[in-house]
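Per reviewer request, we include the raw input and output of the structure prediction for the construct analysed in the revised manuscript.
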Amino acid sequence: IAGIDDTVIVRIPIDGDGGARQWGVTEVVRGAGNGVVEHGARQCVRTESAPALDRHVVATVLDLDRVLKPIDRRTVRRFDDGRTNVLFVGRCAPNKCIHDLILAFHYFQQTVQPTSRLIHVGSFAGVETYYHLRQAQARELGIRDIHFAGSVLQPELNAYYAVADLFLSMSEHEGFCIPIIESMAHRIPVMAYASSAVPETM
């Protein structure tokens, strides 16, 4: 199974007449992206029933107009206050390594820019325990300004990009990482851990 950030077309075998194996069914894992990455396709599983997996990666087009506007002005007014905003967009899940994101930001705030803020935008549905642990981690480290936005509408997401000074990702597993492309569209510098598909996307 390929990463959901790619559009991956996989032909799998089915039983034909008389039980003969035929290559006829196509499974499509849909996503969104603005380039072509092989990482997701390389993760397609080879089994005894499908020893010669035929795979193709077809990227879909990211709607940059939707990414850039409209912008929620209320969010901009709240966070465009002169602080250095470090942004991450992605689900609050262990594979996204929010624990490492918080730790990295802690060192940044302590040693580089005291007047900085970490903004995390992304759902924590189904991973509430991990989310609460991250809140506790931030308190224990004494981080002075961290904002967990949760799931937001597109205009709010655009606003968070608009006020960001840096996009920072410590995620250890990405099928494509659309927020990297969205950050580039907003001309935000991107710093990301070079894992999975991130180097290809960058």
